[in-house]
Specification:
two-stranded antiparallel ribbon, 18% helix, alpha+beta
Length: 172
Amino acid sequence: MAFVLAAVTGELAYAQSVTAPGERPTNGPVAGASSGASNFAPYCPELQRVIMLALAKERFAAIAGKPRHGDFQDTTLPLSGWKDCSLYGTRTYTCDFRDAGSAEEIAKNQAAIVDEIKSCLEESWAEDADRSSSTYVVLRSKRAPVSMTVSSGANGADGYVVRLTLFVRTGG
């Protein structure tokens, strides 16, 4: 079952049809994505919803879960196929992709994830090449003060992880 989620920032309004986790949108473009995207990722509808919530007045309050250490909270809207999704403060959403055993494997995962996100969000988002590197990709919304990073690195154990961090930009 789909519903419409809208956010208003300044003079611009953003609307999105949101579907249940795992369902594909069936009523046309959503947040810059077409339902026929060839690289459609299973987490695309959740990512689009998280972006819309970031723009809402209450930000992530609707998906805030139990408190964690520091200023972190669990989220009730994890991305499909991702783990350890959480909120940091009122402006940041983060998730880790499954671990990989080698730097080469995680680099391939990161590149595939960036391609999936670009396909999901299409032309409404662009890579900021000046702020990106081989282990850190910055994607910026062309229409709203929201950005995300897709980074890769050691997970603190004997493996590697890709981390998505979406945040609301301040000050331009």
